[in-house]
TrEMBL record, chain A:
Biased composition (Basic residues): 625-635, 732-760
Gene Ontology biological process terms in this record: regulation of intracellular pH; sodium ion import across plasma membrane
Pfam families, per the entry: Na_H_Exchanger (PF00999)
This protein's name: Sodium/hydrogen exchanger
Region feature Disordered, mapped onto this chain: 622-648, 675-760
Residue stretches of biased makeup (Pro residues): 688-699, 714-728
Membrane-topology annotation of the record: Multi-pass membrane protein
Organism from which the protein derives: Fundulus heteroclitus
Amino acid sequence: SREGLRGTRHQPVGTGKEELEAAEQQHHGGGYRVVQWEWSYVQTPYIIAIWLLVASVAKILFHFSQRFTTVVPESCMLILLGLVLGGVVLLASKKQLYQLDPSLFFLFLLPTIVGDAGYFMPARLFFDNLGAILTYAVVGTLWNAFCTGFCLYAAKLLGIIDEQVKADLMDFLLFGALISAVDPVAVLAVFEEVHINEMLFIIVFGESLLNDAVTVVLYKVYISFVEVGVENVQTADYFKGVASFLIVSIGGTLVGLVFAVILGFITRFTKKVRIIEPLFVFLMVYLAYLTAELFSLSAILSMTFCGIGANKYVEANISQKSRTTVKYTMKTLASIAETIIFIFLGISAVDKSKWAWDTGLVSCTLVFIFVFRAAGVVGQTWVLNRFRLVPLDKIDQVVMSYGGLRGAVAFALVVLLDGERVKAKDYFVATTIVVVFFTVMFQVGTFPKVGTSCFTECNRVSFQAFDHILTAVEDIAGLQGYHHWRDKWEQFDKNYLSKLLLRKSVYRKSELWEAYQKINIRDAISVIDQVGLSSGSDPAQSKRVQERENGSGVCLDLQVIDNVSGSKVEEDMETHHVLAGNLYKPRRRYQSHYSRHFMPLGEKERQDREVFQRNMRSRMETFKSTRHKRHKKERIPRPTPPRPPLKTAICRGKAAWDLLRPVCLWRPPRSSLWTCSRPGTRASPPWRASPPHPPPPSPSTRASAPSPGWEGPAQPPTPAPPRCPRPPSASRRGRRSRWKRKRRRRSLGRHRKCSRSCRP
Amino acid sequence: MGSSSSSLNNVPDGQQLMQETGFSAAHLLRLYERFKFLDKDNRGHLRSEDFEAVPELSENPIGDRIVGAFFLPGQETVDFSSFVRVLAHFRPTEKNRTRAGAQPEPANSRNRKLKFAFRLYDRDRDGKISRTELLQVLREMLGMQVTEEQLQSIADRAIQEADLDKDDAISFDEFRKSLEKVNIDHKMSIRFLE
């Protein structure tokens, strides 16, 4: 209620008799009050809860209008709402009671968002593009900071900026440092609305995270320079600044990694205390942040690397429910934090006492940050493209320059400035507010939007085909540039880290998967064939139509910006949507799957699984058909490659079979592969009904080091019986008898059923 | 990286391949290492199983088609020169290259790249992408949820847009024409790193 917000006086329940009497007199009636007004007791949590409620209800109301959401980005709405609320509060109580408190921001709001982003960061993509990310984060931020600072100073000297702004070179450099950093909160908020490909997203977002180290150092260095005074700065201090950058960044990373190891280790032993597993995750990640803050290292870096490092092991160790809990809770908290940040940004803007307006400064800043961002991006991309496997083309550069958003971090930093030392603080505050509003509202709103039918459908398919082709050729030619390092890391991980941090059962499962991968599919099939198995493949394709739900109706196909006068015929849109929704995405250009609002259920895994199944199926078909020919050709004993003893081959094959089984849609006779079916019961081909089988471990999770972890199937695949049924002596029966059996079987007809009731 | 094959002499037809494809000696060596890595049984040529051993290919919807492109029609094995010749298609196009009229077109020219892509679609090598072939490719590249009718309609639209002489099939010229505005060099080149 509004009275609550005004923070009005509460009824004192004092100990003095007079107060008691006075209190009693204010209420009618006798000594015992049935209902009391305990405002002071609940004040703080109540207000917090009310704010959270207001923010959440705002989100609901906002999503009522579908059309509205596509035109106006959510962050925009929240800031406007904040403005309105701020105005209300101002009118109600004549002074600003609430604003974005920097310590609240840095201690509670920011870690929530960064923690969520860091924990779910697609690690492989991140490390693939690490070079670009680091370049933009370090070089780009430095370039922006210095250029903006110097140019603003020049503008002051030229008189564009008013004389009232009492700032000299150091002050401007300081301001340049804090205004030039790309903000993770804003980037996340915006790139959720605007769907771009994942590589671009990771580059911009990674930049926004990693430039924290640069910003922190610059900020501190300049603050100390300003305090000391320009005259007292010595050259040694500059070197100290550079050294401090290295310490801050590397130290922050190390802190994060240490906490990641601890977290992984702890989760190894949480089998009996499943219910508090999520708590460990949150605590350790948050502690990583706080510890880095404690030592004034880069807290964002620490938290990010803690999340990235721990993700793989934690996801493997904790239970499925805990995983869901962690995911949901982090996303809920992050969403709320983001909402609150934007609302408070709006509210803080209304407080006129805190800022002072200077047109020259504001306009110059806007122009400079935009110009220097664009120039920096273009320059760095030109250099980077010489070394990258996937070059960044013009559209990517446009997106990156336009997507360099400033947000709440800059605002919090500027509010933190000491008004005594930095005389022009109020002007800076106003400028920062304008810049943040401009980037979040205007830039987001006008993000390059492209028409829905960008190209002909034929071309669209071709484009995807090209990407698939390139990916395949890269794989064949072994061209992932840092394969060497990645292999080394995988070895290290397998031999030391996984043993240390993964639960024993999980570790063994992953070994099984590796064994499968080593086995050629032919080995597996030939082993299975030795036991003689009926085969039948029924590619049960589901014919259900499933339209992908599209959050916003705008398709942002940034491969090409082309103004095709697309005909808005229904058919066009439908075809387009079918293609857009269903084309398999190549590895290089995944659509952004990071979203706070929609949690896509493992799109990548689903795609990988489908493609894998299909490929395996077709390979088996060709294998079966060619083997027929090959048997005819190679009747004379062929030089057998050194074969492992049959027993181990069967066991290996069994392992392979367990994993292959759901993949191939082959079903052995009703019971498990190795036990006898009961005599008399004809094995009804269970593959006719294609029951949902627990999804096989996705092959992609194994193929990469740190990657979103091992999705253990909810129920393990049917446990194989302990012993291998076939006695070793059976192998000595020889090849000829096997051929005879095969020929006999073939003559029985195409359908090779498991006719024998019991097989030894 | 083995130190044994550090000279170009170990690479079969090394000099000739360098001239023909334009790869540098270092690139060629690297590709040879990769060839030997894939050729696990040391036969001197690759079969399709060796390609299948590359795990990432099983996640690629048209992976098997691409592997098929390495094999000349009728052959079941790929030797090193065929391997390199196919990969040569993916070198970035050199600009400002004047060549005498008699010289054969380099492997990485725009035309050859397009021809490579065309041949992926056109499996029976009759010079045209028929409707069935297009349907096959679409089926491979689209997810399971797409129905047959949707598939047909997409194929219809694609042929409608590209087919100029109305023979219900896309010839190489029509294919090239539909992609004339596209920067093929960008889309079909890989930066071969040292």
